[in-house]
């Protein structure tokens, strides 16, 4: 049912007439996110500028039982910010202030619309470091990063967004404003409620401020690329690097399909006569970096690497790293529809999982490019397809079912960093189990009894 005209009038009063979009041509860009083949028109789009505005909008929505879907830049890959039919899309991109950078406590306080890159740049300008680096960091916002608990290329060494959230300001579905956390390194008073909201995908409350932990900037970094004739050899090299007690900041891989697409797209100079490529970066004290880089090069050569290319300076390192960072863009040029997924398995099962993905692609006659975070077992099988071909899309769906079932069987998870959203909610019960699903549902009902926040996402 379309939004009531009285509700639209009240929204214009609360947010200002210029901050409420209702015409079809204006709201079409907000009818989809980064997830392929999903679209749904909202009832309107409201741009929030302050926490108080969000609080008032939620009070209205809760009173009128109107659905609210929070949105940042819309880069999510699981349908988490996809509108529900005729909902209010509450967009926070205009809340883009860095409110404080506290060098004494190594923290930064930001609004939810600040981009990840802006945070990283501001930290870097102060001689500090914000490690999370999702692939969409140039445009993704920190509110979305927290809501999805985003990862990135540096996750192996530095962890994911959750590891850098020290405090949150949240607006609850009732409109109440709640602050959780502080600048203290240690705080064990009561339940860690902020951790409940990290990764909650906009289903429990709306993030309006984030207190982030920063760390000292690494003094040096070394980047290298190793190529292999077999994926198993690359996986063995990764296991050997970890066994040698080396934890690189980046340990990524690309398969043959992705390598060819990246080279055709970015012209980096990648060798095309290999089955797998490892991108490796080590950072820290210059002496440690030099030693670890030499060790990793030696390990790769011992495990049958065809070639190890070591960046001679920072510019070459950035160029080599772009091979991985441009993987999705390169693959997206091949077919009309690109479906980027993520499944994570224990590192010991990575080679087995990669072979399984290859077998599934052959079984269902599909083109898949696979890349991802080999250091932490997070795969991104990327289906190159055409959503207009209904028969092929059915085969894609069947292939995904097998891939996620296998990830669970191997002791893995159905998502390492993209979230559940709409795209994966049918797989969550099998992964989570009956008791965990019951607890999550009860928590959601307790915080949002009228079911207004992001309805239909994660679970019904």
Question: What integer is the average pLDDT?
Answer: 95
CATH class of the largest domain: Alpha Beta
**What's the CATH architecture name of the largest domain?**
2-Layer Sandwich
What is the terminal-to-terminal distance?
Answer: 19 Å
Kindly estimate the percentage of residues that lie in beta strands according to DSSP. 15-25%
CATH topology of the largest domain: Uridine Diphospho-n-acetylenolpyruvylglucosamine Reductase, domain 3
Beta strands, count: 19
Count up the domains. Answer: 4
**pLDDT under 50 segments (min length 5)?**
none
Tell me, briefly, the overall form.
globular
In helices, the fraction of residues equals: 25-40%
SS-derived structural category: alpha+beta
Largest sheet: 8 strands, antiparallel
Number of helices: 16
**CA-atom Rg in angstroms:** 22 Å
Please give a quick description of this structure.
The chain is α+β, with helices and mostly antiparallel strands and 460 residues long.
Description of the molecule:
This protein has 460 residues and is α+β, with helices and mostly antiparallel strands. It folds into four domains: 87 residues, Uridine Diphospho-n-acetylenolpyruvylglucosamine Reductase, domain 2; 119 residues, Uridine Diphospho-n-acetylenolpyruvylglucosamine Reductase, domain 3; 109 residues, Alpha-Beta Plaits (2-Layer Sandwich); 115 residues, Alpha-Beta Plaits, CATH 3.30.70.2740. It contains 16 helices and 19 strands. The strands form four sheets. Strands 12, 13, 14, 15, 16, 17, 18 and 19 form an eight-stranded antiparallel sheet that branches. The chain has a five-stranded antiparallel sheet with strand order 5-6-10-8-9. The radius of gyration is 22 Å and the shape is globular.
């Amino acid at each position: 049912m379309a939004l009531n005209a009285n509700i639209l009038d009240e929204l214009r009063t609360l947010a200002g007439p210029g901050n409420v979009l209702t015409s079809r041509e204006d709201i079409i860009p907000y009818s989809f996110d980064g997830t392929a083949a999903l679209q749904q028109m909202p009832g309107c789009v409201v741009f929030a500028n302050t926490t108080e505005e969000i609080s008032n909008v939620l009070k209205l929505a809760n009173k009128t039982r109107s659905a609210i879907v929070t949105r940042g830049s819309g880069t999510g890959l699981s349908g988490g910010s996809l509108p529900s039919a005729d909902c209010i899309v509450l967009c926070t991109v205009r809340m883009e202030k860095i409110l404080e950078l506290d060098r004494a406590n190594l923290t930064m306080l930001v609004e939810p619309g600040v981009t990840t890159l802006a945070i990283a740049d501001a930290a870097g300008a102060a001689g500090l470091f914000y490690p999370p680096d999702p692939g969409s960091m140039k445009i993704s916002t920190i509110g979305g990063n927290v809501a999805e608990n985003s990862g990135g290329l540096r996750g192996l060494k530095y962890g994911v967004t959750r590891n850098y959230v020290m405090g949150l300001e949240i607006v609850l579905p009732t409109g109440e404003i709640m602050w959780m956390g502080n600048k203290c390194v240690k705080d064990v008073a009561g339940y860690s409620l902020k951790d409940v909201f990290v990764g909650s995908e906009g289903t429990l409350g709306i993030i309006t401020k984030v207190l982030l932990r920063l760390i000292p900037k690494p003094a040096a970094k070394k980047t290298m690329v190793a190529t292999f004739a077999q994926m198993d050899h690359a996986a063995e090299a990764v296991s050997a690097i970890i066994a040698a007690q080396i934890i690189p900041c980046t340990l990524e891989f690309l398969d043959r399909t992705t390598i060819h697409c990246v080279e055709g797209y970015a012209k980096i100079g990648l060798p095309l006569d290999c089955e797998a490529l490892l991108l490796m970066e080590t950072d820290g004290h210059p002496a440690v970096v030099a030693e670890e880089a030499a060790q990793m090069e030696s390990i790769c050569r011992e495990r049958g690497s065809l070639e190890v290319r070591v960046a001679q300076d920072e510019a070459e390192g950035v160029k080599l790293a772009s091979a991985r960072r441009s993987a999705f863009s390169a693959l997206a040029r091949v077919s009309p529809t690109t479906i980027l997924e993520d499944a994570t398995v224990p590192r010991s099962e990575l080679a087995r999982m990669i072979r399984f993905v290859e077998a599934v692609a052959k079984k269902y006659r599909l083109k898949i490019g696979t890349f991802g975070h080999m250091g932490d077992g997070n795969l991104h099988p990327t289906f190159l397809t055409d959503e207009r071909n209904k028969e092929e899309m059915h085969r894609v769906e069947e292939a995904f079912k097998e891939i996620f079932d296998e990830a669970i069987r191997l002791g893995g998870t159905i998502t390492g960093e993209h979230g559940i959203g709409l795209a994966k909610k049918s797989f969550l019960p099998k992964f989570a189990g009956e008791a965990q699903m019951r607890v999550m549902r009860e928590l959601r009902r307790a915080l949002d009894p009228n079911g207004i926040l992001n309805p239909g996402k994660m679970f019904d």
